[in-house]
Write a structure and sequence with these properties.
The chain has 71 residues and is of the alpha+beta class. The chain is 15% helix and 46% strand. Strands 1-2-4-3 form a 4-stranded antiparallel β-sheet, covered by helices on one side. Strand 1 and strand 2 form a beta hairpin.
Amino acid sequence: RSYTCTALKQLVRKRGAIVMNYKGSSVYRRFVDNFGACRYPDNTVRRFRVQARDGSCALKVCYEYEPFRRR
């Protein structure tokens, strides 16, 4: 099933978190509405781009918070 970016964001907002296939048939990722939907209290959220029906779409995913890690 293919969604527009707006529909994806609305679905995540409504459910709080969704697990979605984003690259072929074997790669899944958990997308969240905010850091409160992350599984661990030390997580933070980052934007992650997925392909939507109408182009690229930025959704949020949980990441482990690492305050001293250089990027």
